Amino acid sequence: MSQIHVSTKINGDATEYLCEPEETLLDVLRDRLGMTGSKEGCGTGDCGACSVTLDGRLVCACLVLGAEAQDREVGTVEGIAEGDSLHPLQKKFLEHAALQCGVCTPGFLVAAKSLLERNSDPSEEEVRYWLAGNLCRCTGYDKIVRAVLDTAKEMRSA
Amino acid sequence: MRYEAPRKLKRAVALLSAESGVARVLAGGTDLLVQLRSERIEPDLILDIKRIESMHAIAAERGGYRIGAAVSCAALGEHAGVKQLWPGVVEAATLIGSTQVQGRATMAGNLCNASPAADAAPALIAAGATVAIAGPGGRREVPAEAICLAPGRNALEKGEIVESLYLPARPERSGDAYLRLIPRSEMDIAVVSAGVSLSLDAAGRCSAARVALGAVAPRPLRVEAAAAALIGSDLDEAVLAVLAAACAAACDPIDDKRGTVEYRTEVAGVLAKRAAVIAQTRAGGAA
Ligand SMILES: Cc1cc2nc3c(=O)[nH]c(=O)nc-3n(C[C@H](O)[C@H](O)[C@H](O)COP(=O)(O)OP(=O)(O)OC[C@H]3O[C@@H](n4cnc5c(N)ncnc54)[C@H](O)[C@@H]3O)c2cc1C
Ligand code: FES
Ligand code: FES
């Protein structure tokens, strides 16, 4: 079985890899490229821990084939901070203690960033609906929702 | 397994027709990748249609809209024109899964996957949508209700690909709505669902109607007797009761932990009534 050669962009950097036809983008990121920020919670689209953007659209990396990323742009949690300085969302997650075990956190950060890029002033309901595909077994969601709303507020006034 | 992502529809049909083993079209992959992972299917060929440019188009056509088979539900939900003409269809498409799932899932994939509970199906059937299919023998166009034959089995022949869906033009004073019952507020499979589309005459009487139900039979159902009950009426209580009874009579649901036969049958009528009233309001009629 011959592997597929893929040229793509990940977090703005041109990247190439070989993958099996049935290999998911999540497996490529984690196992081939060592980008283990994206997590596998379920592998079936239910938990959102593998959230990434594909050409700017929020998707589950476990439901994308690695081969599909050819000539696309992938955005992962590793691309959220700028060098050593955390993204406002990351700072607010720390400030609000919006994480415990942290497995869901990369997915929430990628998903929340995608929301704030589309809507700089979401209501609490909009935040909860947008993040309904991200599951968290630890926090009870409240702190996450508050961290996102607080980030939005801060980014609007910046 | 081979992965192919041709740029031309013709090439896609040729690849699919030539495959002697098991072949699957890949649109958003939100059903297909789950099936692959569970090893419920082990295809020899995965044919990704998303490199075919025309499959991503939403184009105005004869007063309605043609929607490419690769258009994601998220992209559909961002299209002001379709939303205005067919709010119930967009409502159904944007109920599918989470934000992440909607970023990939397509209405064509929802139909082709042939789940009796597929959310887009009743709304598309109620809308009178048609499905354009490209195949080795040329192009054919069938009504949306012709796609799902039984759970997991669709009406496509070997080598055929759904190319686009067409949502027709509609008269003034028309509206549609889709409702589903799920135990949670998001991310669940419909226990029962109903789609209604109708038009009103100048006096506010229903002049045309289509009613469809999901998750109450082996395939999404078009219920003509329910639609007939609405036509000529102004949707008063007595008419809505006839509509509900016609829906209940059409039900042939399964009994499972998510809903009993009695419950699904009862709720089908209730949802159809509510959807009819929303459609009436959207058409500018009295609620
Ligand atoms: C977490 C999660 C939640 C979900 N929630 C819902 C929900 O609330 N409601 C709901 O209805 N569904 C739901 N689904 C199921 C799925 O998202 C939908 O059925 C979706 O619309 C499928 O579209 P797709 O483009 O991803 O299809 P794919 O997975 O790409 O394809 C599905 C099937 O259709 C075939 N196919 C696709 N496109 C074509 C074409 N153009 N021509 C011929 N054959 C084709 C494929 O070969 C495959 O057999 C959910 C799935 C997940 C993972
Ligand atoms: S790992 Fe992808 S959604 Fe759970
Ligand atoms: S912090 Fe543990 S799952 Fe969310």
Give the helices and strands, then pairings:
The complex is a heterodimer of chains A (158) and B (287).
Chain A: E1 4-10, E2 13-19, H1 25-32, E3 51-54, E4 57-60, E5 73-75, H2 88-95, H3 105-118, H4 124-130, H5 142-157
Parallel strand pairs in A: 1-5
Antiparallel strand pairs in A: 1-2, 3-4, 3-5
Helix pairs in contact in A: 2-5
Chain B: E1 2-4, H1 9-18, E2 23-26, H2 32-37, E3 45-48, E4 58-61, E5 64-68, H3 73-77, H4 80-85, H5 87-93, H6 99-102, H7 107-112, H8 120-127, E6 130-135, E7 138-143, E8 148-150, E9 153-154, E10 161-167, E11 174-181, E12 192-200, E13 206-214, E14 221-222, H9 224-230, H10 237-250, H11 261-282
Parallel strand pairs in B: 1-3, 2-3
Antiparallel strand pairs in B: 4-5, 5-10, 6-7, 6-10, 8-9, 11-12, 12-13, 13-14
Helix pairs in contact in B: 5-8, 9-10, 10-11
The complex binds flavin-adenine dinucleotide (FAD) and FE2/S2 (inorganic) cluster (2 copies).
Brief sketch in words of this structure:
The complex is a heterodimer of chains A (158) and B (287). Chain A has helices spanning 25-32, 88-95, 105-118, 124-130, 142-157; strands at 4-10, 13-19, 51-54, 57-60, 73-75. With 158 residues, chain A is of the alpha+beta class.
Count of the domains of chain A:
2
Strand portion of chain A, in percent? Answer: 15-25%
| Rounded Rg of chain A | 16 Å
The distinct bound ligands, ions and cofactors come out as:
flavin-adenine dinucleotide, FE2/S2 (inorganic) cluster
State the assembly state of the protein chains.
heterodimer
Unreliable stretches of chain B (pLDDT < 50, length at least 5) are none
Overview of the structural elements:
The complex is a heterodimer of chains A (158) and B (287). By secondary structure, chain A is of the alpha+beta class. Helices cover 34% and strands 16% of the residues of chain A. Chain A has helices at residues 25-32, 88-95, 105-118, 124-130, 142-157, and strands at residues 4-10, 13-19, 51-54, 57-60, 73-75. In chain A, strands 2-1-5-3-4 form a five-stranded mixed β-sheet, with helices on both faces. In chain A, helix 2 packs across helix 5. The longest helix of chain A is centred in the last third of the chain and has 16 residues, at 142-157. With 287 residues, chain B is α+β, with helices and mostly antiparallel strands. Chain B has two domains: 2-167, Uridine Diphospho-n-acetylenolpyruvylglucosamine Reductase, domain 3; 174-282, 2-Layer Sandwich (Enolase-like, domain 1). In chain B, 33% of the residues lie in helices and 25% in strands. The longest helix of chain B is centred in the last third of the chain and has 22 residues, at 261-282. Chain B is globular, with a radius of gyration of 19 Å. Chains A and B meet through strand 4 and helix 3 of A and helix 2 and helix 6 of B. The complex binds flavin-adenine dinucleotide (FAD) and FE2/S2 (inorganic) cluster (2 copies).
